[in-house]
Amino acid sequence: MSSSHPRHADDGLAVRLAQTAEAIESLLDGLLSPDLLEGEIARPPRLVAAMRHGALGGGKRLRPFLTVESARLFGVGMPQALRAGAAVELLHCYSLVHDDLPAMDDDDTRRGRPTVHKAYDEGTAILAGDSLLTLAFDVMADAVTHPSGEVRAALVLALARAAGLGGMAGGQMLDLAAEGRFGSGQASVLGEAEIRQLQAMKTGALLMASVEIGALLGGAPESQLTALKRYGRALGAAFQVADDILDVEASPEQLGKATAKDQDKGKATLVAALGLDGAKRERDRLSEEAVAALAGFGAEADTLRAAARFAAERKS
Amino acid sequence: MSSSHPRHADDGLAVRLAQTAEAIESLLDGLLSPDLLEGEIARPPRLVAAMRHGALGGGKRLRPFLTVESARLFGVGMPQALRAGAAVELLHCYSLVHDDLPAMDDDDTRRGRPTVHKAYDEGTAILAGDSLLTLAFDVMADAVTHPSGEVRAALVLALARAAGLGGMAGGQMLDLAAEGRFGSGQASVLGEAEIRQLQAMKTGALLMASVEIGALLGGAPESQLTALKRYGRALGAAFQVADDILDVEASPEQLGKATAKDQDKGKATLVAALGLDGAKRERDRLSEEAVAALAGFGAEADTLRAAARFAAERKS
């Protein structure tokens, strides 16, 4: 496979992140156009608009960035890496649209704008989320994404496994339960191990899959695939502890959404379990664990190393 | 590919339907077990239970039946045909769980039992639907379903295209809009062409895909694939007109759900557009169109021919 990635060691992480975010935005804009794909009958304008509201105009696009950077290690062409990254991002956006619903986390704003069910309505938001999820698999399975059907099927499987009942959706289920939404109505005090499992499912599984998918695109040998999954798992965990810390320390303006919500809801976080200082130490440990997993790679993995530190140290 | 389908001309449609339904039930029971697949972290029991509530214990399993019978034309082994059929059924069940939600059709019962959000709660029902949808793609992409990655990717794509914004989800969006859920709050009077498009998306696309997926499993040549899609499209339309007619003529006990709902909601149906007699003539015409599409097949397609008549003449 030919590489369209010149490697500039002085390309800063911020520049690379911004470039990928711009390319992903443009790709999503095209995927969420009124144009029909073969086999589609009509795209209802209200549904397209709600999907665009949920997927365009914001976010760090960290997940597609991880896919692109992981794929880069194996010389994967940029168009393919970006398509697969866009599929991962569509899946991430679906999860935000559904998590924001009144029956779930009941959030009115996201990235400083009204959430989809606020800008439209609940029924439309449910369908927009469903359609973003479905489109993610459509994009992965389409021959444009990779010439090999074996690879495309592997991409679909990795994404589905990370997103489903044993991954992200299951993690959201555990989160609702921990908040006391069922049964007694009392929030549960989860132990550290339970919190880690919840977070590994709710956020970690998709972050890990973002890295894994880049490696699958590039036909990574088993040992490198395993190393990259270990990297992704540690990065995902670091990212989530950082999120718990930001909820305590950041302002709503920095995050574009309400803060101090976790504590108010009695939410299970590692800040609650380990204390603020303990959580920060754990965040840094996980970030170093992610970097250590890349020991078998050379300078070509420096951006991924920087991404692990960024995931831990981000301010929004 | 070896065939495990002995062809008995005297196998009645009802017997075949019942056999497939039993096999699908058993397969879904296994897929929705607490056992983790590789890559899954944990399966929260409440989520598994809600998914089982939404997917097990009922339904004619018409869609997997169409997949199995279409695959049979090409000698596809039963285990593969049933796996792909189970994926189609998971996707169908997801759509029922979400369509029943208060923000959508707001139904309390389904197949004579409480709907998932009634038996559990709205948040759990949303997640159960999401997870059934995701699992459908997981099953299609898994190597157990077909040895060829090319075929598995094609299965995923056919399913996603039928289910997404340009298919089933888009059709539900049009349906909510026609009921006057947005804007003026008035139900729209849709013309016959608009009703046909809505129904082709909401119900037709997945029924057609059920047939198409069987043909893809069997590596059908292009001409036969086209014929089977034409069959599936006509059958899907006949099925939906029959549904409109049943809503007027059947009792709630026959259907296991409320009837005369369409009229109460000012819902766009072909009964409203063509009158009851006109709708019955249209149903029969579509059923014959489906049969005619199979002209290139011999006696091996007799069960599909009978299925087209069944879809039109069913009493529940």
Task: Set out the fold topology.
The structure is a homodimer of 316-residue chains.
Chain A: H1 13-31, H2 45-55, H3 62-72, H4 78-99, E1 109-110, E2 113-114, H5 116-119, H6 122-141, H7 149-163, H8 168-178, H9 192-217, H10 222-249, H11 252-255, H12 261-264, H13 270-293, H14 302-313
Antiparallel strand pairs in A: 1-2
Descriptive overview:
Chains A, B: Pfam families: polyprenyl_synt. The structure is a homodimer of 316-residue chains. Chain A is mainly alpha-helical and 316 residues long. Chain A has one domain (13-313): Farnesyl Diphosphate Synthase, CATH 1.10.600. Helices cover 67% and strands 1% of the residues of chain A. Chain A contains 14 helices and 2 strands. In chain A, strands 1-2 form a two-stranded antiparallel ribbon. In chain A, strand 1 (109-110) and strand 2 form a beta hairpin. In chain A, helix 1 packs across helix 4 (78-99) and helix 10 (222-249) runs parallel beside helix 14 (302-313). The first copy, chain A, starts with 12 loop residues before the first helix and ends with a helix. Chains A and B meet through helix 2, helix 6, helix 7, helix 8 and helix 9 of A and helix 2, helix 6, helix 7, helix 8 and helix 9 of B.
Q: Which whole number gives the mean pLDDT of chain A?
A: 92
**How many extended strands of chain A?**
2
Biggest contact = A-B, 69 and 69 residues
CATH topological fold name of chain A? Farnesyl Diphosphate Synthase
- Global Rg of chain A: 19 Å
Q: Helix content range of the residues of chain A, please?
A: 55-70%
| CATH level-two architecture of chain A | Orthogonal Bundle
Task: Tell me the name of the CATH class of chain A.
Answer: Mainly Alpha
Beta-strand share of residues of chain A: under 5%
The CATH superfamily title of chain A: Farnesyl Diphosphate Synthase
Which oligomerization state do the chains in this entry correspond to? Answer: homodimer
- Helix and strand element order of chain A: HHHHEEHHHHHHHHHH
Quick one: overall form of chain A? globular
- SS summary, helix count of chain A: 14
How many domain regions of chain A?
A: 1
Low-confidence stretches of chain A: 1-10
Placed side by side, the strands forming the largest sheet of chain A appear as 1-2
How far the N terminus sits from the C terminus of chain A, by CA atoms, comes to: 36 Å
Structural class of chain A: mainly alpha
Can you summarize the main beta sheet of chain A? 2 strands, antiparallel
GO biological process, one term (chains A, B): terpenoid biosynthetic process
InterPro entries (chains A, B): Isoprenoid_synthase_dom_sf (IPR008949), Polyprenyl_synt (IPR000092), Polyprenyl_synt_CS (IPR033749), Prenyl_diphosphate_synthase (IPR053378)
Protein name (chains A, B): Probable farnesyl diphosphate synthase
Keywords (chains A, B): Isoprene biosynthesis, Magnesium, Metal-binding, Transferase
